[in-house]
């Protein structure tokens, strides 16, 4: 039971972040290699807020969302918007460079935190809280992850399908040029999409340290799993990325459980993400979304 | 209404349209005709801000708009219908119209939608169909309706009859003519079918290799045997 709860929580965390990655791919056609770094930024934002404000890291979730969102927004405005018309390869290489830059900046930040504030900032974790639910003692992490993910997904759905801004976002996603001819400020809409993508990643990142050790390079370890989820989902589908994240999340958790029970190292875990990406691209390039979008 | 002054347009570092100048008055239909690859569509894109302007200026209602982004031009009263991809195919007709109306004040959305459906009543029965299931002519009607929702002053049409059967093409251009007469809409129409376009237009611009070979009344171009034979396959 505990394994299932943990798998559901991990999958929700992946879904929250994959959704942002898919949003960037759909709206701007950018396979953003720096996306997982917004998660790391969210984790560091929670760490710094909890130390400076002397609050529990859970209370720092809004700050993590805000900083993750601002980092993604800055990436879009300073890098991807100026390069938008330069083709997919240019955008992909730019995102790889951005990934290296953000990780370097996070390393400098980590060193500063360590040296100046004596905060243990390379390989940190958060201590979870325990809540009592119907007579049972439950850890805060799975509840928080599932609550935050559900809230974010419902909010995004309401935004996309029940607001004027959401209608414009859908229009820009299908054809930015056509949307612009109808008087829609596509730059503004894309900026909003990027902010949301970063905010979701920031939120997810703020909850990583409850289960994984976080350092400036953490993003690079998660990125592959996020790409696997989005690829399995079909690259161009928000719903697909969510479903893909849950499939990958549960499969990875099951694999890790299996490896551990066989006495093998769980370091083989990323093998699954690699295999899913290759298998999906070979067998069903349009991913799971092709099942319901026929 | 529209003043194009010494305009050169292209993509990247390649200049395709060279030093075009003309004026278009309110209520006129200007047909832009010429052989394939003469830069007709590029000129239209340059006027709407979708192609790179190398030289010259575009003025709309006395206001210089050469450096304005396309969405600003749309908000100023210009409407551009691209040759392909003028509708959101995965959405229903109703959703396409609502999308186009999303930049209007909420208070006028409904009335503007009804107004457009009165102008294009053939769309009423198609509202709940996905655009990808419609015929080419029906799609162009949807695109036209999306433009009309904004009550544009100037409609820029890029080969609206491309890929349409001759009868449908004729019907569509007739509809454009009706809009021009009934609503006073100014139209700039890029067309491959020169005869059809010149018959519904009042002014004509003949483009060859990115340059203007003729600008004047459409009747004059229709009667000009030399130009007609050489560049338009007329006569």
Q: Let me know the number of strands of chain B.
A: 10
* CATH topology (level 3) name of the largest domain in chain B: Rossmann fold
Strand arrangement, major sheet of chain A: 1-2
CATH superfamily of the largest domain in chain B: P-loop containing nucleotide triphosphate hydrolases
Based on DSSP secondary structure assignment, what is the total number of beta strands of chain A?
A: 2
**How would a textbook summarize the main sheet of chain A?**
2 strands, antiparallel
The string of secondary-structure elements of chain B, in order, is EEEHEEHEHHHEHEHEEHH
Please, what is the oligomeric state? heterodimer
**For the CA atoms, what is the radius of gyration of chain B?**
17 Å
- Portion of residues in helices of chain B? 25-40%
Structural class of chain A: mainly alpha
Task: Name the beta content range of chain B.
Answer: 25-35%
Which structural class matches the secondary elements of chain B? Answer: alpha/beta
Helix content of chain A: over 70%
| SSE succession of chain A | HHHHEEHHHHHHHH
Biggest beta sheet attributes of chain B: 6 strands, mixed
- Weakly predicted, low-confidence segments of chain A: none
Transmembrane segments (chain A): 7-26, 38-55, 61-80, 87-110, 141-160, 189-212, 266-284
Subcellular location (chain A): Cell membrane
Keywords (chain A): Amino-acid transport, Cell membrane, Membrane, Transmembrane, Transmembrane helix, Transport
Main location (chain A): membrane
Can you characterise this structure?
Chain A: One of its GO terms (biological process) is amino acid transport. Chain A: It holds the Pfam family BPD_transp_2. Chain A: It is a multi-pass membrane protein. The complex is a heterodimer of chains A (294) and B (235). Chain A has helices at 2-28, 35-53, 61-83, 88-116, 140-162, 164-174, 176-181, 186-207, 218-233, 238-261, 270-283, 289-292, and strands at 130-133, 136-139. Chain A is mostly helical and 294 residues long. Helices cover 74% and strands 3% of the residues of chain A. The two termini of chain A are 36 Å apart. Chain B folds into two domains: 2-77 and 153-232, 3-Layer(aba) Sandwich (Rossmann fold), CATH 3.40.50; 88-151, no CATH class. In chain B, α3 runs parallel beside α5. Classes of the chains: A mainly alpha (294), B alpha/beta (235). The interface between A and B is medium-sized, with 18 and 26 residues.
